[in-house]
Amino acid sequence: MAMKFTDALDRKMEDVKRPPNPPVGHYTWQVKKHPDTDSFESKNSGKTFDRLEFSMACVAPSDDVDPDDLAEYGDVTGFLTRKSFLFDNEDEQAFERSMYNLKRFFEHLGVDESLSVSEALAACIGAQCLGELKHRPDPNDPEVVYAELGRTAAL
Questions:
Q1: Surface-to-core class of residue 109, CB atoms within 10 Å of its CB (0-12 exposed, 13-18 middle, 19+ buried)
Q2: Distance between CA atoms of 135 and 144, rounded to whole angstroms?
Q3: Which positions ≥6 away from 96 have C-beta within 8 Å?
Q4: What average pLDDT score do residues 58-87 get?
Q5: Domain boundaries in the chain?
Q6: I need a surface site. Which of 29, 101, 112, 124 has the fewest CB within 10 A?
Q7: What is residue 130's three-state secondary structure?
Q8: Contact 77, 56 (CB under 8 A)
Q9: Which helix (H) or strand (E) segment is 92 a member of?
């Protein structure tokens, strides 16, 4: 059922609940748009990082997703999550590891290896891969659990 924000204005805040996460397991994912980039400084180390974040939409579950849990959750098609890559601007080896992980992600999406990174970023929009959906509790609030896209593979 489609909702409008204006329809929710009369709801009591105590009636607003966190929706459940889709069940863990492997799904087919699609890159929805050009990835977002930002830079930030780590509170712990003071290091600066660049973050590259892909918006990933669920296309379909794989056979390893529990059918009962899936039936209880409902339609997972279109569920959005992110796939992020952090680039340490002060540690060359860590930066190159992130670059290699990004290259592998592009391979899983079927992006041609002969492209430059900027060309690959454009070419990956709409591409699909297999990815593992995991649940991770918030370290500051164990009642909050995030659905995250973990390892990926080619379809």
A1: buried
A2: 10
A3: none
A4: 95
A5: 22-39+47-153
A6: 112
A7: strand
A8: no
A9: helix 92-108
